[in-house]
Task: inverse folding
């Protein structure tokens, strides 16, 4: 990947940072023009154990009020960390910015991804994603809200499911 592509992806990750600062300043939140959400202005949160296995950090959450529907966050997975099975009513896009990992659709083999890859998960597709066992991974996750929700969480990925996925995935970027 070229330095320019890497900088572009990093800039996208930084651009997708928290609107928490705007929410704390209502006069800015009501502004109708272009706004810039400054890097590091929002809190980081640990991914909850009912939705994630391993250590996961969620930061830079962003979501606008209706009629806007798109929102997301920058999510960092430590080695071996991953989501539970879940779906999104209108699909999900992942922009991989660091490390390597994989995504798996229910009933299909896992697919590897590396920095610069963009993953599209169609609406209502049961899937999970996370870091490879030997390295961490960061992605910007983007999904749209429908009827007040952007995700439906399901059961955890079993140890056997994770091991099977990891066994067929090449290690690291090629």
Result:
């Amino acid at each position: 990947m070229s330095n320019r592509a890497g900088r572009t992806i990093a800039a996208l990750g930084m651009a997708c940072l928290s609107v928490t600062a705007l929410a704390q300043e209502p006069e800015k939140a009501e502004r109708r023009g272009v706004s810039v959400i400054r890097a590091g202005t929002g809190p980081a949160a640990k991914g909850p154990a009912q939705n994630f296995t391993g250590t996961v950090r969620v930061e830079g959450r962003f979501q606008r009020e209706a009629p806007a529907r798109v929102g997301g966050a920058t999510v960092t997975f430590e080695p071996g960390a991953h989501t539970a099975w879940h779906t999104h009513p209108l699909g999900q896009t992942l922009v991989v910015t660091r490390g390597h990992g994989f995504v798996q659709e229910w009933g299909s083999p896992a697919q590897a991804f590396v920095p610069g890859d963009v993953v599209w998960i169609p609406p209502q597709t049961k899937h999970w994603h996370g870091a490879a066992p030997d390295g961490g991974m960061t992605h910007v996750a983007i999904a749209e809200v429908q009827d007040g929700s952007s995700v439906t969480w399901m059961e955890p990925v079993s140890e056997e499911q994770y091991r099977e996925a990891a066994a067929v995935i090449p290690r690291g970027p090629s």
